[in-house]
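The methods section describes the discrete structure representation at length, but only in general terms. The central task, working out the structure tokens from the amino acid sequence alone, is never made concrete. Nothing conveys this as quickly as seeing an actual entry. For illustration, here is how one protein appears when written out as sequence plus structure tokens:
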Amino acid sequence: MSGAAPPALTEAQLALLWRGRRFPAGALVTRAGVPVRVIFQGRAGRGPGPDFRGAVIAGPSGIPVRGDIELHVRASSFRAHGHDRDPAYARIVLHVVFEDDGERGETPLHGGGSAPVVALAPWVAARAGELAHWIERPLLWREPCHDAPKRTGAAGVAATLESEGDRRILARAERIAAASSAGGIDQALYESLLEALGFGGNAPAMLALARHLRWDALLARCGPPGATAASGRRHLMEALLLGAGGLLPSQRGHRGPLEPHVVALERAYAASGVRPLAGALWKTWGVRPENAPARRLAGAAALLAPLRAPSDLLAALGARTVNEAIAPLVRATPEGYWRAHHDVCAGACRLPPAFIGRSRALEIAVNVIVPAGIAAGGAAAMDARALFAKLPRPAQYGATRFLELALVSSGERVRINARRAQGLLALHRDWCTQNGCGRCPLSPPAEPWEFAGLAREGVAVR
């Protein structure tokens, strides 16, 4: 390239350009000289994986192609970051970069596919003076719900979110009711509780464990509270849950030295006769220490050991305050070994002082205790709805952050509690990720032109 080097774009600026479609149409040309048209830019990804997901693009043929978009400052970063070996990036349909320093051809993907590369540097070099204008120009696309607070007022948005949140919790209550009919309320709560503790990628494995080592089988081996010392019942529950999950050192091929507590767990499990699940079910890499599956199961044992049954947790429905409702959950604190360990095959590390922090306790209240109360019906359902209405949200969810940003863009802010946060999640699951943008309950009555355009392009919309 001759002449002065073009001003470099950062990856954040690339994301800003892509999300708002601030680039001129002619800027998107592949290495092979094929122009690309953006029909829908997709949604910003969260966590590991592509930068934008569910995008729709088209070439000169006009045939729409759906998939993911990855952004890099340099084309070579795709291989350098190992994306070509990662199945999470197998659905990339366009690799957008600033500087094309890679090999010729398309970007190779896991599984043998490839994605065309669009480099913006040549366009920027020819039009360096326009770069600031691209970034500063108004958005060419915004979520259709962005003006909902102005159209319906904050009260109208709040009412919609609450209705959607109720719908989401009612669906969860129906699942708990079905599980209760099949195996009893204690088994249903036990499954829901372990699944909720699987935050960080292990919810399916936790649910599989609860169905493999059922509550009645766990109770038969550990006895009711008072039958043995509280510490002994907790230790036995911990050993059975870890062993049935296939997470003990002997089941994972660990050859290093073991702490006395772990040796005792191995002995207790060996005497139980419980067969293990396959250890491959668990996600152990890329998980924060406090979310490690072994530590979560130790936390489950600490929570369950003082209870006669999981249904004891429904006493929270009659609590006068939020703190009173979640008190049994946050009281499950680590003892001895677990104060400084997150796994039975790892050394000591710094950890939070509780197995279940306030945020996770609120999640359990929202996703387990409230729907279980609604499923029970009668006075319990009324108490559950009252508790749901006063619970604060546990945290801001990454999946719905773009929705919250859209809703405050007009300057009118809607307070988000647990009920409304569930509504945001319901909108995200049922509309935002299902090509329903522009037709959800927060959108204007008229369908926005680009979503009508999706239908004209032959792209399926929900």
Q: What stands out?
A: Residues 75 and 100 are 5 Å apart (CA to CA). The longest strand covers residues 64-74. Residues 11-141 form one domain.
